[in-house]
Structure to design on (2040 residues):
């Protein structure tokens, strides 16, 4: 089977430390031929570092010269939509960083185009590849959970406003803690329920700490230009009466530096995801089950491989274009509820 | 100052172990003159046990013979409304067990009558008297919290469906985990925000475990007659954009036997209520403050005293008739949302 | 159904604190009519303390006057045999303290007579009634263990040579740590395997610390009259290739004051008994299962009830006469191996 | 003093990571001149990696060309015997990996030839060089233990069947968990007692988990070709009435991933080896002694040096040919007992 | 041997809960015949409670009517001197509460009179009877400590200003934390060194928290009348170059509610007293020795018995009149140093 | 601004691992031009390792050829005085390792010359740059401590006599544990009080363990040449009645390998330095404040920068010449008290 030709758009940290190493480890399936960035010097440097032949500062040249089979998009959120659409217009599969886009309509259009073109568009929610998530899925399959009816999902940082990049710029990122952190656990929660579209969405967003400034645990941020929410909370209900409680924060007056977890409640058993524990009844008694030897996995490598599986038409648990559109709609409805 | 004459309606556990001992310790302010119960034998036994002169099996005789100044209502939830209305019609102050009633309209009528008659009607939410709540209030007053904008409140039992009484009978109790447990932490959460009326209320209720049966940690329940929710979750938003996340359960597949807490997030500091901790910035650093020597208090005694203060027109932090009406409305809106 | 008439032989601690309270709680099934002891004053005092009508200093009078249905034997080990035989000759069921006897032949004769007379002879191994053992049994039944092939059983005290009674007198007790402590865990281990008769038995006994003296944690013992083993270890193999490792000590230079446990290894899962934990594979991963809410049970009450069930021909997990004979044979073979 | 000329037979992991680095650090006493392996490429690569001059694919050439003074044998267990015999026939001292051989007779023949030739034959039981074992020995010498009379020794893995090499091939290894792991703790236990020959040996072996397959913690094994025991238990008694309980497993349904320990019981004190603790009486009280600052030692380096000491006729605690023969006999008797 | 006739002066808590119960348990050696207090009602009530025949409100009558053999003094510190002198003038042995007196001269005079009269005067420092202190003494005797050269002694409370009695009244108590708490650990420290008279004494006292008020953990104190030190620190050196560091507080901004300990440093070993641990070298390694099973003792009973032993001329470790005089001199020199 | 020219005197570990790396990181402010050591080979090697141009074996040549602006002195304690004096005579600022000197007079002369010449002489007490000390200072400034009145400072090693260098040579080092370790915590304690000159100084020194030998945790020392104190304790009082308790040891029979801490007691709050905790009253309750996210800092880099700030006339918290003279006087008075 011939190798797929891949290009990356965006030459930042996530390309350098996540996507390129994963693609390189999958060199029996994919050949990385170019890096494209508005900043040619960055693109060139990254290409050289990883032994990638070409570097471009515009996609036009890149598509013409490389004719890639697939495109990995690692740019700010507001560029996901135009770049993914352009890539699909060139007949490329697309592996796009999360979140899908900065509006629900964009994500919907992206999904529609992918469907129309018969292309694979997928989003890089790597937590789906953790040992904990694999185990949760296995517990569901093996009937240890029973039907799931409620999920509490949170991804909270005490003072983790990133001090670099565009994370506090709403026009580029589309939002703050919810867009950057909340989507990870929201994606998992939706997965556990079968990715339904919610009935009701109610939510709140706050920016008090972000706009006041203070001690930073992930670099220092500028309160004056802080334009996104530092915390978002929401409640989702679904047609089958299941529900999700969601919390995400860049900054919140809580104890732990960082706290990321899902509590998943089913009729037979409940699970705590990080660290994994199963709470159920066994042998007629309430039982707590721990799994002490879960494997450490390279979640980016597994997710990139899952994307390649999807491109090849094989079963894959990568986040699909359709799921991305649903998730983006949920995010937008949370922001709308908070603003109303 | 002459002693107030008090009577109790209801001769169950809560009268015996909570209200009567508290009233007896406050014998310089109140004189317990009668116990009234549909079951005269129970009423008589309880009166004798505590040295209370009279016992009745109907309120008509009781009001005629005793002419009480105040009435303590310790009956099933569905009786709170008729008994409180009757008491106020007799010109009595009323100290009523929680929850206020089984419908919002009842609680509203009760509040209106109290206002109209100039009587004190109060509800026995004793957690307001814990050292932890006093300290939270003091932290708010001392400016250690800043404006509070979000609260996570939960009161969860893993398998704590009470195996006695009417707890699983909807017609008598009006509901399950939310009515019995959730109202305690909801009352505190509303207090922390100034008892506003919510804008939006969305919620869910479940009864899977209750109807399936299983291991009980508070006696054994009968799945066949289980008629209430075993879990309720809700999200409340308020006109000033503050919000509350609420969870309550009699049964849920979680780890702890029982878990009751409020996490209260303010602009300057956040607090964890049980056990109490304050998370803030101090001397330019993120700081966690613990208070190792909080006093053990008799919360029933303090709450009964607070009710007597209210009767006497003194400042009091007891749950007022108006607050009870708001809380009951919230509860009803949660049930309505869950049913819709 | 008429009440069974019960008498106790022996008026010591075990009668006073274990058997009589249990029998009294079972007053709907059994009526305790007499206590018999060589020391009439002790017998009288014990009978009075518990409201038992008669006291005797010889069994002849007792049998003649009381005509009991069942006899509970609470005397030193060397008396179990003659007293049980006499009781059965009088047509009585017998509930005998552990160990069955001080020789294998005695225990075999006792079992034979019980079988011949169609009477219930049972031994008071109460650990069979612990929540942990019930759970182990349930795990076996539910297929969570798989076939069990090896058991490590121990009951070790660091310096727990009893400073009272006849525990160090070989002629009365027949042995030391193995007779007093080891038999408890040996009985459970044999139960878990189906009470097979071993192929090979090899063992060792020691008395170095007992004869040297030292710090006592259960009273002070006299090294000069110390006549039993302070420690016994053994290995048992069975025809189906299963095996048991057994250790018991009154005194051993180990860390814990007291350490009593069984580790039970099966093909599918292994269990640790005290505290209970199950080690197995679940959902494709190695799993440790804990049961945090095991019930506290009155093991004497349950064991006495189990004996009464056996007398009534109902299913019962009490230690039978036949099992007692097998266990006593194992004990004797351990002593023989150690002495050879 | 001239340097001894050393050669290694076997070019696997143990040669590469243990023996050669140790020999190289002892370059003032020994000169490594060759590596010999059936696979010349492996031999050459290993020699080059460590700067060793010669590589051979047969011992004949090697002995002729190198005339070594000592041979280090790092091959599968079944080759220890022929290679050690050949080496001694060439007048070489032999440092042989554990276990000594795959039959008791082989190990006996090896010891006899060493004695006859006046050569040093020793086995690489490196745990003798741990700080814990040195301390145990010192405690014995200083009289803190008193005479030792019982030892519990175990080396248990929960799912540690090696997924590489020949560990599950009975013809090459001679056995499984006992041959690979059990011998380490058995050697120490025998040392503590003065390396006596046992009176009685009874044991059991199992292979249920190995043949059923499952989760592996040390690579994945093939249940179909699993030909050794996954667990072995044994009891040894000695002419002076001392005894040893031994357990070893590649796979057992227990909690810890790996658990290796000796509990050593003496008349005055008892010791736990890993981690080291002494349990005794001091100042008239029961005392637990911990030694918080034991030195980390390079046990291979110390054991190789001990072998060289033995070659030079100096005092040494390396495992001797005679001890190896006794140990191998014990192992064989355990297998025989298990098979009978 | 005839019983000694004892009387108590002082009818407060320490008499009621410590001295009388101890004396009553020693009824084979001593007969308590009277209680004497300025407040006859209190004296009478206490006497009745414990079955003591007589009660007095003046010592004159008491001595005349009772002719006691020994007197137990349980009054405020300033009365120890006159009452002890009077008792000895009446030929009585004296068992006096700590501290000996409120001035060094008083304590010296008391010791002199005792010596002159040949009477036993002793002080009730009960910590000398703890298992920990007995063990320390035994470790010294057994040579496990070596010569002791430095001791750190402290008795610190965070907010433990007693809210009752005369503890903050300097005229009655002579001082605060040092007089009440510090003397306990100072007495032990001096004992460990052989009760030498110090060369140099330098110290400091503070009263900032006591005079400022605040949260109380042992009742509430009145800052306005707070007349003693809330903290005292001192350093003592002795002619043989040994030294003591001493700290005592009623109130200090430290973490623990209460912290009482001695660290005792010797040439061979060091000991921590509460909880007891020995730090030494054993078997060539640094060793920490713990004694997990120290006996719980009734230290008042043992100290009263030790006093009676002293009266009978038997060996006794009770604090002697001479030791009390030395201790009181040290206390006075600390206060003088602090004031200079 | 032109770069300052720096030279180092002394080519040992502290120069190599602390001073040169710090100076190199500050290359925008300082240029290291030479290393000077009596041993030219060492000087040359160190210079080459760090890319420093010149190496000298005498200061005369060094001053003539390099004309440095500042000198860093990293030699044994007895050379600090002559080398610092010479440096200042050459008009150089001096950054001198701690302690300042081996006599109070030397340190006083050094301070006087610095003042007279208008040069910066500073000592390298880097603990002043720890996050903990910065936070303590900030707490003082923010009024969280109140006036500080007592400090307990200790720096204790159990068996940490350095096995290398001159640490046990009194003529070169001037002393032992106090000179090497005690000065660090003494400097901080004096800082917290404003660096007052004490009223009274009383102290003790010991050398029992050092002269006896034993297990070493920082290399092995020679008891025969051990010429310094292995432990020193002292008490200091100041004109304003504040006080310091000081302990330092190379060897002491205590539990922890190493224990370094200051407990600082103020009127409002007390602080524990390592790890940092604040103990105070907040919201009317006793409160313990922890700061979980203190920054890890390069304390040598910060201290060298602070020295350069001082040279440039900027505010700096480096230990000044005057403070060094006071500290050295305290050390000398402790030794004098111990010797008297």
């Amino acid at each position: 089977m011939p190798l797929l030709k891949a290009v990356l758009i965006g030459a930042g940290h996530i390309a350098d430390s996540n996507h390129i190493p994963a693609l390189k480890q999958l060199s029996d399936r994919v050949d990385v031929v170019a890096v494209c960035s508005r900043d040619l010097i960055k693109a060139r440097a990254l290409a050289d570092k990883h032994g990638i032949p070409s570097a471009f500062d515009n996609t036009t040249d890149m598509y013409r010269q490389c004719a890639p089979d697939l495109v990995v998009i690692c740019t700010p959120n507001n560029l996901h939509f135009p770049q993914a659409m352009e890539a699909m217009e060139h007949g490329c599969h697309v592996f796009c960083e999360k979140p899908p886009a900065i509006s629900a309509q964009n994500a919907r259009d992206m999904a529609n185009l992918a469907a129309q073109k018969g292309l694979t568009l997928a989003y890089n929610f790597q937590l789906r590849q953790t040992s904990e998530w694999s185990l949760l899925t296995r517990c569901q399959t093996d009937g240890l959970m029973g039907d799931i009816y409620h999920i509490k999902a949170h991804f909270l940082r005490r003072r983790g406003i990133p001090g670099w990049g565009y994370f506090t710029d709403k026009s580029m990122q589309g939002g703050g803690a919810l867009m950057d952190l909340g989507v990870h656990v929201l994606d998992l929660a939706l997965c556990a329920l079968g990715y339904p579209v919610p009935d009701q969405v109610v939510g709140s967003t706050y920016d008090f700490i972000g706009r006041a400034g203070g001690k930073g645990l992930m670099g220092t941020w500028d309160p004056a230009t802080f334009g996104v929410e530092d915390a978002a909370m929401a409640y989702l209900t679904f047609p089958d009466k299941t529900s999700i409680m969601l919390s995400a924060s860049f900054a919140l007056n809580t104890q732990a530096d960082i706290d990321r977890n899902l509590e998943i409640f089913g009729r037979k058993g409940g699970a705590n995801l990080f660290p994994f524990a199963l709470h159920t009844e066994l042998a007629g008694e309430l039982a707590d089950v721990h799994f002490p030897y879960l494997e450490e996995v390279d979640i980016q490598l597994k997710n990139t491989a899952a994307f390649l599986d999807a491109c090849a038409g094989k079963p894959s648990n990568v986040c699909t274009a359709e799921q991305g559109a649903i998730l983006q709609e949920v995010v937008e409805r949370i922001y709308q509820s908070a603003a109303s």
Summary: Chain E has a mean pLDDT of 97. Chain E touches chain C at residues 292-293 (CB under 8 Å).
